[in-house]
Write a structure and sequence with these properties.
Layout lengths: L2 H7 L2 H4 L3 E6 L2 E8 L4 H13 L4 E4 L3 H8 L9 H6 L3 H21 L5 H12 L4 E3 L4 H11 L2 H16 L6 H9 L2 H5 L2 H5 L1 H25 L7 E7 L3 H10 L4 H8 L8 H23 L1 H25 L4 H10 L11 H12 L4 H5 L1 H4 L5 H4 L1 H30 L2
Length: 410
């Protein structure tokens, strides 16, 4: 049967849908490009599953996103203490921002973004078909995107994410068109994805290659041979790139997927710069004591007051409990002698202990973070806010103290 014959035999809802058929290793991959805010895409998934037989269903989801769709309340089990201790506060905050963006879309268009992926998984479950989660873990993608851009571009990304939380107007038409072309992450990062080649590569091109490798890997591990068929449901923005790579990719799929799933090492220069700054400040304090005990004591006092003071101000701005403010003031000056959890982490852990999040805080978290007041009224959001503002205050305090101490020597 020719492709035109196949198209003619399709149900009406499928005839205008972007569908590609790729055969690799005898396995036929029927790739359906979807729009993440379209009821038609949901209907297309259901119709394709009903119209054609498949041996597996692959979706553009990672484990965490799939779990979030299957169990929207799973995040309520989040342990804030572990999140802070493991240095995942930033990733959790970014995920919450993305979920807030999705919620606004759902309110504006009456359909939850990614509903077609949920329909594909549900359809596979109903037919007892295996579900292949072929997208890269969203946390890894965000980390690789973050590391792919320069220092100043990161401020633009942070500003864009923050603005997307507090923007109360309807989402612009251009962003909806991006979603109709099919990628949630690219749309959430707005114009930065289209203007930055490294960012586009991390958000789109690398994931195309990863998903193609994962499809090949899953087919091999499942023992699929000639005659087996897999339905692949992906955003339309990935359709062309994925199909091309599925045809031409020659690297070992497991090796390639492993490389693309790795987190790039952190740049060392910020760490060495921070260490160098602190060593220079303490050298200045030591020189002050050498010149005059009173001058040295004043320099040491300035270090404590500036670092502890700015950190405490960060906690106060975050609306932290007095004990959390005190923890910030104590932790910041001794940061150089206490490697590990930053002062923001210690203050946030005290905040989470003193004001333990209630069930209601988790229930309303996604709603609360969409309004600036919610970051202060919701205990989960306020703990994260406390972490960031205290950490920022510590950095400001270190630089301010250093400048003041050096000036006092001359």
């Amino acid at each position: 049967m020719s492709l035109s014959d196949i198209a003619d035999s399709l149900p009406p809802v499928l005839r205008d849908q972007p569908i590609e058929r790729v055969t690799r290793g005898g396995v036929e991959y029927v790739v359906l490009g979807t729009a993440h805010v379209s009821r038609t895409s949901v209907e297309a998934v259901d119709a394709l599953l009903a119209h054609e037989p498949f041996d597996a269903v692959a979706v553009e989801l990672c484990d965490s996103r799939a779990q979030g769709m299957r169990d929207p309340d799973a995040f309520k089990q989040m342990d804030l203490f572990q999140v802070i201790r493991q240095g995942k506060a930033g990733m959790v905050a970014a995920s919450l921002v993305l979920s807030s963006f999705q919620k606004r879309l759902a309110e504006q268009y009456g359909i939850q973004p990614g509903a077609e992926m949920k329909a594909a998984m549900d359809g596979a479950d109903q037919r007892a078909l295996p579900v292949w989660l072929v997208d890269r873990e969203v946390g890894t993608t965000l980390k690789r995107a973050w590391h792919s851009v320069g220092f100043w571009q990161r401020f633009g990304l942070l500003g864009g994410l923050i603005a997307s939380v507090f923007e109360r107007q309807q989402i612009e038409e251009v962003e909806i068109e991006k979603l109709k072309q099919g990628d949630m992450l690219e749309s959430a990062f707005s114009e930065f994805a289209s203007e930055s080649a490294p960012l586009y590569r991390s958000l789109i091109a690398e994931r195309d290659a990863y998903m193609a490798a994962r499809l090949r890997e899953q087919a091999a591990s499942s023992g699929f041979a000639a005659g087996r068929r897999v339905l692949v449901v992906i955003g339309a923005g990935h359709l062309k790139g994925l199909c091309e790579l599925l045809r031409t990719q020659q690297d070992d799929p497991s090796t390639l997927a492993g490389q693309l799933a790795s987190t790039p090492p952190k740049a060392r220069w910020p760490k060495w710069l921070a260490i160098g700054l602190v060593l220079a400040i303490f050298a200045a304090i030591g020189f002050a004591f050498h010149r005059n005990t009173t001058l040295g004591a004043a320099a040491l006092r300035d270090w404590v007051l500036y670092t502890g003071g700015f950190s405490a101000i960060g906690a106060i701005i975050a609306g932290a409990h007095p004990l959390s403010v005190l923890a910030a003031f104590i932790a910041a000056p001794i940061k150089p002698f206490r490697p590990g959890i930053p002062s923001g982490g210690i203050s946030a852990m005290v905040e989470a202990w003193v004001r333990r999040p209630r069930v209601a805080d988790f229930d309303t978290l996604r709603d609360d973070i969409g309004h600036w007041r919610g970051w202060w009224s919701n205990r989960v959001a306020r703990t994260l806010l406390n972490f960031f503002l205290v950490s920022l205050g510590t950095i400001i305090g270190e630089y301010t103290a250093g400048i003041h101490i050096v000036k006092s020597l001359f």
